[in-house]
Amino acid sequence: MGWEDIDIRAISLTPKILPAKSYTFQLLSGTEKNEKGAVTAAAAVLEEGEWNGYKLSMYFPDPYTLNKYNTTNDWSAMCMARLVNALGVDVPEREDTVSILTRASGHTFQASVYHTAATDEFPAQAKINLKSFKPAA
Fold first, then answer.
1. Which residues contact 82 (CB under 8 A, 6 or more apart)?
2. CB within 8 A of 53, min separation 6: which ones?
3. Structural domains of the chain, ranges and CATH numbers in brackets
């Protein structure tokens, strides 16, 4: 099975969007830091039903870089600390966040999901609320 088996005409251009509510997630492997120092991680919904396994990305900008408002992203470090705390992993002194999250892959946490507004360029998207991390029940 491959691209030759896909009927492009039958593909909906309106993607299904994960409903906005609280979910239990499993942190996936593959956490990375980009050239700007931002950390990206992904998590999958861990609940019964059609959304089980649905993946969302999380983006934590470098706390020390300046954003479009010419201020630092201090909130990013706080959100990362909340995620690590919710994952329940020990953090040795001086361990970097990519290593921590890589080691924590497979661990679970709870977080709420919200929707971005649709624009002319992009449809509405489901995003993990980075300020809502809690330990999984």
1. 130, 131, 133
2. 44, 45
3. 3-135 (2.40.50)
105: number of Cβ within 10 Å: 16
In 11-133, which ranges are continuous DSSP H helix? 74-87, 97-103
Tens-place pLDDT, residues 3-41: 999 999 999 887 889 999 999 999 999 999 999 999 999
- Residue 123 C-alpha from the chain's centroid: 18
- pLDDT digits 0-9 by tens, 91-133: 999 999 999 999 999 999 999 999 999 999 988 999 999 999 9
Tokens 């700007």 correspond to what residue?
A: 36
